[in-house]
Design brief:
Keywords: ATP-binding, Nucleotide-binding. By secondary structure, the chain is α/β, with parallel strands linked by helices. It has helices at residues 40-48, 72-78, 95-102, 110-116, 133-147, 163-178, 230-247, and strands at residues 2-11, 14-24, 29-33, 53-62, 65-66, 80-83, 90-94, 126-127, 151-155, 197-201, 215-220, 223-228. It has one domain (2-247): 3-Layer(aba) Sandwich (Rossmann fold). The strands form three sheets. It has a six-stranded mixed β-sheet, sandwiched between helices. It has a four-stranded antiparallel β-sheet with strand order 2-1-4-5. Strands 7-8 form a two-stranded antiparallel sheet. Helix 3 packs parallel to helix 5 and helix 5 (133-147) runs parallel beside helix 6. It is globular and about 50 Å long. Bound molecules: adenosine-5'-triphosphate.
Length: 250
């Protein structure tokens, strides 16, 4: 689904990502760990195609299309969606209107989606205006549910969310990962190819209690340094810290 080859990215003239290689096959969820400032958000913003993130070399391929320099709206139409770490407040734009704009299927019932996220009371507010951290995450998830992307980029979905609402966020992410997919007639679970793919950034690892991660990776100083079981990586980081973690021979 997503293939990143030898990617180099500069922000504000400063090299941030260095020769990043990553592959997320159809239906897989990968977890991205890394200390503050290591380039995790930069990687997500570059995959989504935001301006200010200059690709200096390398290639990003999504569903077989070279998207390295594709405009952001075309990437969204192709099926990439992002949950921001710190989304902006948009004065003068109602959340309901934004969700209508994001909606892939014009028949999607926005009120029903909002109800599931306990977010119905906020639909008429301006986007993210005076929302708590947890409410902002639910607003972001609502937009993603309407968009129905095939690749989800989730930047710290647990930040600002209390433990009770973590279950709501976890359920919403799981719904997003299987959403609108016809089930395999010979099996009660969707096959891997029918599921959506996901790259999720986490510092705490709380999200791992709610989603099934296929692989974890560590980004350290702009370089992908480790790729293995996400829970194992989290255990190592907690026990030894990032510097020791990336120094291990795997
Ligand atoms: N617009 C910018 N101009 C200059 N430097 C920037 C800009 N945006 C990000 N950076 C720098 O790029 C580096 C990587 O930032 P990034 O947000 O990708 O890190 P991160 O791994 O997501 O960090 P965190 O875990 O704290 O969210 C940081 O040193 C940051 O200060």
């Amino acid at each position: 689904m997503l293939l990143i080859e030898d990617l180099g990215v500069q922000v504000g003239g400063k090299p941030i990502l260095k020769n990043v290689n990553m592959e997320i096959p159809d239906g897989e969820t990968h977890v991205l760990f890394g200390p503050n400032g290591s380039g995790k958000t930069t990687l997500m913003m570059t995959i989504m195609g935001f301006t200010g993130y200059t690709v200096t070399h390398g290639k990003i391929t999504f569903k077989g299309h070279d998207v390295t320099f594709m405009p952001i709206n075309e990437r969204a139409e192709l099926g990439i969606g992002v949950l921001f770490q710190r989304p902006p407040t948009i004065h003068g734009l109602k959340t309901r209107t934004l969700v209508e704009i994001c909606r892939k299927n014009p028949n999607t019932d926005i009120d029903a989606l909002a109800e599931d996220l306990s977010f119905k009371n906020f639909l008429e507010r301006d986007v993210n205006e005076n929302l708590s951290g947890g409410e902002i995450k639910r607003s972001e998830l609502l937009q993603l549910q309407a968009q129905e992307p095939d690749l989800l980029l989730l930047d710290e979905p647990e930040s600002g969310v209390d433990l009770e609402n973590m279950a709501v966020v976890g359920d919403a992410i799981n719904r997003l990962l299987h959403r609108g997919i016809p089930k395999n007639p010979t099996c009660s679970l969707p096959s891997k190819r029918e599921k959506k793919s996901c790259l999720v950034i986490t510092h705490t690892g709380y999200i791992l209690d709610y989603i099934t991660a296929d692989r974890g990776q560590v980004l350290y100083d702009g370089v992908l340094r480790c790729s293995q079981n996400a829970r194992e990586i989290l255990k190592w980081i907690r026990e030894y810290g990032y510097a020791e973690c990336v120094g291990c021979p795997q």
